[in-house]
Every structure is written in C-alpha cells, then in structure tokens.
Design brief:
Length: about 350
C-alpha cells in the first residue's frame, strides 16, 4: 500500500541534510515554530482565506492569496511556493507562514511524476536524461527517477511562467520556495540586511540550502556560487562525493537570471535541478553563508517526496528490496503527523530542561 500511495506523490525537494542556523531563542519564535508544526501534524485547522482555484501540471493555482506585499515591496514582487496536489498539510503550513509575514504569494502546483510525462512534456525529454535516473545506469532501460524528473519540470515550468509573464521587467525579483521550508520569524528583516550587504548587483541568492560551501567563495556573510556542484569524483582535488550549494528550499531570483538559466538548462540532459543550476554558472549567483540562512529545511521531519517516488519506481521495476532508510523516508513522506508530533514533544522537553 505504501508503494501504491507513493507512486502518486509528486516529489519537489532534496532530501539531504544541510547545515542550519539556530532559530531565534525567543519565546515568541518557539511558539510560532510549534504552531506551524501543529499545522503539519493535523492538530490545527487550515488557515482561512487560503483556498484558491486548482489546476494541474504547470499552471499556477491560487492567484494572489497573500497580503498586500508592503512588508517586502522593496525586496521582491511576490513569492511562489511549489506544492503537490495531495500535500494539503504542507500547503497550509506554507500559507500560514506567508500570511503571517504579509507576503504576496502564489501556489505553483507541482508536476506529477510518472511515465505520462513522456507524452505531456515530450519536448523537455528531447534534451536527454542523465544516466543515473535509469534502472540500469550503464545500459539505460526503464526510467525510474520520476521524482527527480518531476522536481526538474516543476521548477523549469515555473521559471518559464515567470519569464513569460514578466518579460518586460528583467530586473523584477521573485522568491521561490519549496513546501518543506520553515522560515525564521524575522526572515524579511534578515533578508533586507543581506541585500544591503550584497548591493544591487546580485542576480540569484540562495536563502535556505544544503551542502558545502568553499571557504574561498565566502566572505562570512555570502558565498559566490561556482561550479562544479558535485558530487565530486575520485581524482578530483576535493574527492570524494562532496556536494556544493545544493537545495532550492528558499531563494531569490531576478527575471533575467531565470532567462539565463533557461537558456543553459536547454543544453543539458535532465537530472537534479539544483545541481544543474549551479553548473549553469549564470553570473552573480550568491548564497547566504551556512551560519546565516533564513530558515530550516524540514527534511528530517517530512522526508523527501522526490526520493520516495524514485525509490518506489525503482523497487517496482527492478524488484529490489528497499533499504531501511528508504522505507523510513517513505513513511515520513506518506504521513507527516507522527514524526512531527515527536518533534514537538522533543522541543518541549528541551525547553523544559532549559
């Protein structure tokens, strides 16, 4: 039953763990953190005023559901968060955060992973698919990386939408989020401070991400994102298996940088889109330093939908037994409630001991 369920889940986020900054230790921040986890565990009703029209595939749904945008008018036009049709708890979780911050936002419905994409998105497959997304990585055969491919297409079609609808404003900035991102209570103020530090010449800025940063790339506040993204291979200077500047949990981007990314993505086979975007090497791509990110990636609590879909397809087509880690991840992705309830209890115990 878990396999059948997860074949219907659309993946849209990395599952690796990242270095995270500590959240604010104030009691207000802790209460907010707990209330958002209540939403994910089903203990709190869906916030009012967050229901928008839904439409499948790459069509944006929900319209302008957020506030008037006054809290961020000097920083970005609006936020887009990517969310699968069945992930209603994650949707309520994201909209609660964005409403509380006064952010103007739209929900972008994620692309459902599966072989039907070969028909509905045929033109994208003309650029090829990386070997590691096939059942047999050396001889090809059946595609199994449908979670990775749906993540790629969810982001790529959103980029196309933004470029198409804002083609006359190349300098317009947008916030792009995945729905497993917990933003800090003061994230807008911290973003404003970070942009004062970078100056106006930035084009893309990673706000919540995972992986490594090279010391030579960073000034203590921001890092200049440079390829290769990794994983590094045997024989390289920084061997082996290291990944740099991965994850698209929260990031800010200008229209013209998306235009650059789209041009360069079209020349590369499809694979993990976060790594591809590093390797595209569009100018002035920056990342907040690991100690100064604006939130958390809740992969430990929610699991990775992308990895769950990949594992389900691989197990179904190759008849291999899933590893314990894969089974635990599937359970998290299928039902967020128990894991998040345990996290709330643990948070309470730490607060009590303090």
């Amino acid at each position: 039953p878990v396999l059948l369920l997860l074949l219907l889940i659309l993946a849209h986020g990395g599952s690796r763990r990242e270095q995270l900054p500590p959240m604010s230790s104030s009691s207000d921040s802790k209460r907010r953190h707990g209330s958002l986890l209540d939403i994910l565990s089903g203990a709190t009703a869906r916030p009012k005023g967050t229901v928008g029209s839904t439409s499948g595939g790459r069509i944006s749904s929900g319209g302008e559901l957020g506030g008037d945008g006054l809290s961020h008018a000097d920083l970005f036009e609006r936020a887009y968060y990517i969310n699968a049709a069945g992930s209603t708890r994650r949707r309520a979780f994201m909209e609660e955060q964005l409403h509380a911050s006064g952010v103007r936002f739209e929900r972008w419905e994620a692309t459902r992973g599966g072989p039907s994409l070969l028909r509905t998105h045929a033109s994208y497959f003309e650029r090829g698919v990386h070997a590691h997304l096939y059942a047999n990585r050396t001889r090809g055969g059946e595609l199994v990386g449908w979670g990775t491919l749906s993540t790629y297409l969810s982001h790529h079609t959103l980029f196309e939408h933004i470029v198409r609808t804002h083609r006359r404003n190349d300098s317009a900035a947008f916030l792009v989020l995945q729905d497993d991102t917990l933003l800090a209570a003061d994230w807008i103020a911290r973003l404003r401070a970070a942009l004062r530090h970078t100056g106006p010449s930035w084009e893309r800025l990673l706000l919540v991400w995972w992986g490594l940063a090279r010391d030579a790339d960073c000034d203590g506040t921001v890092c200049t994102v440079k390829p290769p993204a990794g994983p590094t291979e045997a024989g390289s200077v920084d061997c082996c298996g290291k990944r740099y500047y991965h994850g698209l949990q929260a990031w800010l981007v200008r229209t013209r940088s998306l235009r650059c990314l789209l041009r360069r993505l079209r020349r590369r086979p499809m694979k993990n889109i976060d790594a591809l975007m590093v390797n595209c090497n569009c100018p002035r791509t920056l990342a907040l330093a690991p100690g100064g990110m604006l939130g958390e990636h809740l992969d430990r609590e929610l699991g990775s939908e992308r990895a769950a879909v990949n594992d389900a397809w691989r197990a179904n087509l190759t008849h291999i037994m899933l590893s314990p880690h894969a089974r635990r991840n599937m359970a998290k992705a299928a039902d967020t409630g128990p894991m998040l309830r345990r996290k709330r209890k643990a948070t309470g115990r730490r607060r009590h001991r303090a």
